[in-house]
């Protein structure tokens, strides 16, 4: 499966611009992590997993990650990709531990990309490119800011990766800033 195929499949189950943008954001951030962490040959795969990670959330929020297994299998998606997609809900909505480094990164950055995006919108530039780590740390500590972003999941994800929360914030902010132009391109997968 390539990115355009993953994007088309995602759009069969997701119509809300917010969900589509989140998928694009996570896909592109995962791609950046793949390249930064020495998995460049798997960058397309990582990006597709990011695109599809919430495929079931819009239509089946109460069965999130569980319904994804069924949807992806019905479309003949590779089991490795299915496991990667579903494992990002481990301990939250499914019992399927992340195994591969990419799966652990997905678990850690899923919520965090939302926090970074919300923080960027509050800046005069509306961009993460000029955001400093200390600014993001302040937003992370403010539980009222982007209250839907689960800080406990972010912290657990950092721990699973062997990182401090600050290290995860720094790496994810850098990834987000690096791909922000593509995130803002509504026709990126056209």
Give me the secondary-structure category: mainly alpha
Helix content: 55-70%
The fraction of residues assigned to DSSP E strands is: under 5%
Termini separation: 16 Å
Helix run count: 9
Secondary structure tally: strands: 0
Rg = 15 Å
Strand/helix succession: HHHHHHHHH
Q: In the residues, how many domains can be counted?
A: 1
Low-confidence stretches: none
What is the residue-averaged pLDDT? 97
| Shape summary | globular
Largest sheet: none
Blueprint (SSEs and pairs):
Elements (H helix, E strand, L loop, with lengths): L2 H11 L3 H20 L6 H10 L13 H9 L4 H8 L14 H21 L11 H9 L9 H10 L4 H19 L7
Helix pairs in contact: 1-3, 2-3, 2-6, 2-9, 3-5, 4-5, 6-8, 6-9
Your description of this structure?
There is one protein chain. The chain has one domain. Helices cover 62% and strands 0% of the residues. The chain has helices at residues 3-13, 17-36, 43-52, 66-74, 79-86, 101-121, 133-141, 151-160, 165-183. Helix 1 packs parallel to helix 3, helix 2 (17-36) packs antiparallel against helix 3 and helix 6 runs antiparallel to helix 8. The mean pLDDT is 97.
